[in-house]
Amino acid sequence: MCLKKLGAVTMSKIDQVIAAINEITKADDEELEELLEDFIAPDETINAINEYEKKVAKRLRAQKKRFADGIKDYIGKDDDSSIKDIFNYVKQDLFAADEFSEELSIDTQDILELTVGQIAGIVMDDIDEEVVFEELSGRTIIWIEQWSEELGNLMQLHSHEAIEKEFTRAIEAGDGIDTVINNIKDLPQFDRQRARTTAITEILTAHSVAQYEGFLQSPAVKKKKWKHSGTKAIEPRENHMDMDGQEVEVEEQFALVGADGGTYYCDYPRDTTLPAGERIKCHCTMGPVVDPDIIKLTPEEKEQIRQEVLAGLS
Ligand SMILES: [Zn+2]
To answer: Ligand 1 mean position to 288 CA, how many Å?
Structure first.
């Protein structure tokens, strides 16, 4: 955004806030560009992260407001209610009425479908210009639906747990409801940083899904290769660095030794089957291992192979 200077008029407070936010976003994007150095379609990925972050932040703000307003309304009707009564009301009524998970699921499904399709197209074009991306496989569409719903539920659960914790703390400490409302407003579960972390993790997951989809639909891709990246801007984790260069057949799974010592099987970096700790802040990516003999086949022969793969993934 460009800030216009209106003669001698100084920047209003709102403009100052907007300028500050833009500064932060700019710095974040530069850091992301560095992290996504080895990624295909970095610009599309960063745009999707920013767009999704705004949506998640908006849903979190609305959720926080519903809780703060809901509690205030309840006290307004009966100001003799004890903090335990209010806690019961929050658990029984406000938790049940919370629309966050449903709203976030819809936003997530929209952006995942768009992003996975867009990046799969770029991935396939990069491998072989003669095999053009047309549609997502049935398997990927189902995964997007299921994961969007699960993510909404998980995030909602975490927010509710944080609110419960605050009430339990206040009851033990003997704090009043005003303190509880203020502390709920300050919970990290509702803040912009959570929106940012969620957006980065989920859009980079969409990036992995898009690569997997693109590799599966590209007849020339025989294997996928794990790439560790972004050692500059982050503390690299040793178990992910150990994955660097590992190759497996496209439909086979990578074996990742977790930070907890367990072995986890995954189709790609940040696979949602991995523990959260192995997904969040992971900036690994993949590369295709291409069979040059298949690139030389005719477009018709390649299209036939692709159609057979798609039929198997429906
Ligand atoms: Zn990683």
So the answer is: 17
